[in-house]
């Protein structure tokens, strides 16, 4: 009888402990996603930039994995973020253009995490509209010039009985520049000017200010890591660092070249390897991967991406053969589509009769203005004249290993015609399967090349994919070569 009472007493204590234990806190890892604003993939120290000072981000890269070929779905702020949060291509989100609010019907992976017991927070830049409120327990505008100053306090004031997901989105490094003591001062005279920019004093000063904001974000990345370590949860936390698009300079942001569409992407966390990853990945793969990390459902058909959690665990090397991206309206009219396959990038321009402009390539900002002035004086070289081309080539083809900036269009080279035909059909398949379409009545230019509003009434036009109700289409298009009923080029590296 005494043994039975003792057993029941122990059982009651154990049940009481279970009742008040932190649910899943020990099992479910925490996730911190840090999204930079307008930081190019090569503008971080661990990606080879010798000018910018980013010791804390570099340390993440040393302790985790650096992805060398993470491609965004678009190089434009709001549609890029909407694509990341939904795991869907921009024309499939219903918000493919700058400033389009994300429709409430779309899937949002933080909402799934929230329903699974995660405490979810967005702090800093939203730019996706009011519908995302349902995905987060807390939304903060952020504090300070870069909106990072409340990140540590948010970590300190979180519920202790829940795993957490933090969407920390800085305003660094978005124009206009703001300076404070948290950013490093960079000497304009000691910087290396990227080849697509004109090397002049205004551009150098512009770059130094940009690097100041990059380094300020790095400071707060360090503070987040310190706080996680202080709380004793760092070892059970995945930290992801990335950017939403390329740097805010001519031929970078908005464009489908690597300088615009490829982003820095670092993952550090439990049992993460340290070798750089060269395989191709798409930003739509982030949502299913983070859901896999959390151990939640990733079978929702609305997710167009493919989880790369197996890559992080070392079970897989690659998860896709193709990545696709799009350029839609961003202050100036645009419709471009891109596919990356192995060593090749193919771009199709829907408006070849137009200059390919963005606010960052106009005369509105110092580097753009200096580039335009140099061009008018005949001082620019071929690498710096892309934004002035009119008309443009309707198609572009690049061999990335030989031409990392995509300066030499080899679309007309005879030995590349087999590859060109293959990528044309691949892109056609993606457009058809995902319901993409070139608008018949597209959104017109809003500004002129001086950055001034054009006269008359302005309003948004037809969205890409709108005529096909693409926002309700879940097909992802080809991910693997085997998805295509097309003969693979016998020698994809020829030429």
Automatic annotation (TrEMBL):
Ranges where the record places region Disordered: 434-495
Keywords: Calcium, Hydrolase, Metal-binding, Signal
CDD domains: SGSH
The Sulfatase N-terminal domain, residue ranges: 29-131, 151-295
Any single Pfam family the record assigns to this protein: Sulfatase
Superkingdom of the source species: Bacteria
Matching InterPro entries: Alkaline_phosphatase_core_sf, Sulfatase, Sulfatase_CS, Sulfatase_N
Gene Ontology MF term list: arylsulfatase activity; metal ion binding
PROSITE patterns: SULFATASE_1
Ranges annotated as biased composition (Basic and acidic residues): 435-465
Gene3D superfamilies linked: Alkaline Phosphatase, subunit A (3.40.720.10)
Signal sequence region: 1-21
Family under the similarity heading: Belongs to the sulfatase family.
Protein name in the entry: Arylsulfatase A
